[in-house]
């Protein structure tokens, strides 16, 4: 079931309108150069829709009604007038474009730590493990240059040396 949603500030005024399905209204959104954290559940207003097209129409209407802050026309932080976007699998062209945009991006130490912490305690079912194994079966790793291999070996050696030192320091 598709729906349109509004995220509300503490004073009750809306600051973002979107279209979603499932848990979309309650999860953070990533956008170029910014992150938007989802508000508490009591600060989310849901407008159920008969179809995805209806949800898009409602999103466009809400953005028009409340106005976009970036254009000086209202209070919403939306960067578009709504009605675009897709649900479901992306085309190969789209996935390649996303991959190219992310290639070469460096993650901060804090981001890496947050990602690692988000994976702590995740227990995969046996069914998931079997399916994941099937997906990886027969895959060949891309060929690596000798330079890449040498760099990898050096970095792993440094890692193990640091780890060994840290372990020895903590045991004393």
Explain the layout of strands and helices.
Blueprint: E1 2-8, E2 14-21, E3 29-31, E4 34-36, E5 44-48, H1 52-66, H2 92-102, H3 109-119, H4 126-136, H5 146-171
Count of DSSP H/I helices:
5
Q: What is the distance, rounded to the nearest whole angstrom, between the alpha carbons of the first and last residues?
A: 59 Å
Helix content: 40-55%
Q: How much of the sequence is in beta strands?
A: 15-25%
Using brief descriptors, characterize the structure shown.
two-stranded antiparallel sheet, 172 residues, 43% helix, alpha+beta, 5 strands, 5 helices
Task: Explain how this protein is built.
This protein is α+β, with helices and mostly antiparallel strands. The chain has a domain at 2-66. The strands form two sheets. Strands 2-1-5 form a three-stranded antiparallel beta sheet, covered by helices on one side. The longest helix has 26 residues, at 146-171. The chain has helices at 52-66, 92-102, 109-119, 126-136, 146-171; strands spanning 2-8, 14-21, 29-31, 34-36, 44-48.
What would a concise description of this structure say?
The chain has helices spanning 52-66, 92-102, 109-119, 126-136, 146-171, and strands at residues 2-8, 14-21, 29-31, 34-36, 44-48.
